[in-house]
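Q: I have 536 residues here and want to know how they pack in 3D. Can you give me a structure?
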Amino acid sequence: MAGLLLDPASDRWADWGLLDVADPDRQKNGPQAQQAFRDFIVAAYPGYAFHTWAERLIALLQRVADGELNRLIVCCPPRLGKSLLVSKLFPAYWVSRYPTRFCAIASYSAELAYAHSREARHYYRAVGHPLSKDSTAVGNWLTPDRGGCIAAGVRGPFTGKGYALGIIDDPYKGPEDANSAGQRQKLIEWFQSVWLTRAEPGVNGSAGAAQVVVLTRWHQDDLIGWLLEQESGNAPQRWQVLNLPAIAEPTQQQIKFPATCTIEPDWRQPGEPLCPERFPLGELEQIRIRAGSYWWNALYQQRPSPAEGLLFQRAWIRTTARPPALIGRSFAAVVLSCDLSFKGGAENDYCGFCLLGLLPDQEARHPAAQAKARGEQLHPSAARVRSPADPQEGVVHRIEVIWSQHHRLDLPGVVNFLVQTLGSLDQGLSPDGVLIEDAANGPAVCQLLQRQIPGLIAVRPTGSKVSRAHAVAPLLEAGQLAFRSGNEALISELLGFPNGAHDDLADAFCQGVIWLQTQHWRSQGKATPRPLLFSR
């Protein structure tokens, strides 16, 4: 009998405890061995490709396993391999390090969570670690030391067990799930009432259960959006954040996270792909075209905004492709609107700049009017001819967003930027005014800037940012505003306003539109094109 139990072919559980004999494999592979996570991966998954992004994530997960880090958020594009690392290999490694404790895995469905747990069990066994023979189910498997792994779908039960490591991987099934306010709220309530209540407390002053949340962003108010919003409350969790856009962005365009979070720096130069071995830049550009700007920004750049918009609706956004020859000398008025913040640090607000032009009266731009001005005789049907610049039911936009930028600048940086920008503009785009908000910047700063910047106008705002946005929204809805290419960051801010992480471009945009509409549009003596303007 003893021979059979010691025979690896028959004793498939490697459960030496039946003989009350210390298992040399368990002693060798126990916590005292302190095997590194990377070495574990090499042993459990010999063909694993250690790409640069994976090395960064492995290093963070190592810190979680070592007890140095207990709050980790990972945002990355789909099909990168994040679940293999976070939800399969890492639970196996962690349980091998702590065989008396539990790891919990949650995903959008119980089936997916069980699949992760099954793979974790496989990798745990692949390097020679034993299972308890009385509990080997994929959703709840145990070690001989009575620790192990449990799994369930989000909004499902985690009854009877606590966990020392909790992993939430892709809690949203798809866009319908993520875009449903009711489903998002149910997930948050489950997170608060079930998930957090199963976390083990710290012992003897040590940190409590570690939390790892990994997902591809679907919506600005998803679980990660909610967790980051809670950082402004009385109990910030001080998350470590690894945010991995598919294509690296310039520093000034990178997402701003709460000051209580620690952000892993992006090691790439702007424009570099995240994992060229799997998704080279050319393929990503094709994905960008196929996916469209909204899903590209959300799923691949981790910069979600509402699909339909909040105060500003996506259906209202009009783009224009006016020929370059029409850019200069074709505007009745041009304004450079600025939303300024004079703190240039990496964690401070942006300065937003928006160059807008007011087009001449639409009647003067109609082909019939132009022909009449040349003294040509018109056929009666000419009145029905639509302007080439007007593809939508005869409505011609009046204000055009030429370009928009935002930068983190101190006061000297603002002066230098404005001087260089104004000097580089073509004569036809030289602004009639450079607008800054009087109330926000104070009289001393306004006087200083007015001495340095020709044509600077201090604008006294009326109402709050939101009320000014409500005044501009009908113009956008009526088709009176259009955007040239290159203004995607501004459009994204408008769709997320007022709940987005940044609003500097939106503020500059609204200030410029209101000033052009009030000072120039109405002063032309023409009736306002749509009587509903500014009715909100």
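Q: Anything worth noting?
A: The domain at 23-300 is CATH 3.40.50 (Rossmann fold). The first strand starts at residue 71 and ends at 75.
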